[in-house]
Amino acid sequence: xxxxxxxxxxxxxxxxxxxxxxxxxxxxxxxxxxxxxxxxxxxxxxxxxxxxxxxxxxxxxxxxxxxxxxxxxxxxxxxxxxxxxxxxxxxxxxxxxxxxxxxxxxxxxxxxxxxxxxxxxxxxxxxxxxxxxxxxxxxxxxxxxxxxxxxxxxxxxxxxxxxxxxxxxxxxxxxxxxxxxxxxxxxxxxxxxxxxxxxxxxxxxxxxxxxxxxxxxxxxxxxxxxxxxxxxxxxxxxxxxxxxxxxxxxxxxxxxxxxxxxxxxxxxxxxxxxxxxxxxxxxxxxxxxxxxxxxxxxxxxxxxxxxxxxxxxxxxxxxxxxxxxxxxxxxxxxxxxxxxxxx
Length: 343
Ligand SMILES: [Zn+2]
Fold this sequence. Notes:
This protein is 27% helix and 23% strand. By secondary structure, it is α/β, with parallel strands linked by helices. The strands form four sheets. Strands 3, 4, 5, 8, 9, 16 and 17 form a seven-stranded mixed β-sheet that branches. Strands 12-11-10-13-14-15 form a six-stranded parallel β-sheet, sandwiched between helices.
């Protein structure tokens, strides 16, 4: 099969079109003919690599996959060839206490498709049966591929972790990203008032179209000053973070007494300073989050099918242009998801 893979970590140039053996599904796996695979910042991190990351090379990136079931393993009897599906990239053991409680993203053996094991920048990928969910009707494969990682991450951050409630205010940092544009929509669905930040006015207008109530261009204005002004110094109940280094300290300053900050990423750096006096005296909650439970994806897909949440597709590129697609992410040139089309 054709795939885009890298043999060594590095810049976008390490991504090359290669031929790899078509994977065979194990007994409880299904083989998906990949139609579309969405990019995430995780792809860029994994391509660059980090200390302790051990991958089978060549490695195939790609976590967010939409496609068609093309073959099923010997023990899969409830899914037929030809079914259109989206793939949940969270791989877990399925047997431990955490998995059985529906907290499979807390499973000790939790891994992400495309990060730890070969993913979807390829014509075919094999995944466990429990990792596929029906593709929402009325969506293209490219649109469906935008959903799993970004929406599941943003949903879990705002519901399970930050427990955002109707009437509360939330600051969504970098609302133009895949996870940020999902967060704006989910926060509105939950009944919150949303302040969205982005680096350009064009991105902010698109955030407004997704429901953002207030817009802050952080390249032109100080977002902390804007939060003070917009809330009459009440500040925001929840900050949705994933930018890290460049924004984190000021994000904390946007919280009132009892405020919550939830984060799933550190695209501009992972080391920040925290004043513990502020943390305890203001009774703040700093919450970390990664992915979400497989069960929640079904609810999200229902909300998408009902038109209450929308995938945000920036553009599609053919699989062979994966390196160019990575550049769009690192240049922050996209609004929402960049998707590679495979067949
Ligand atoms: Zn488990």
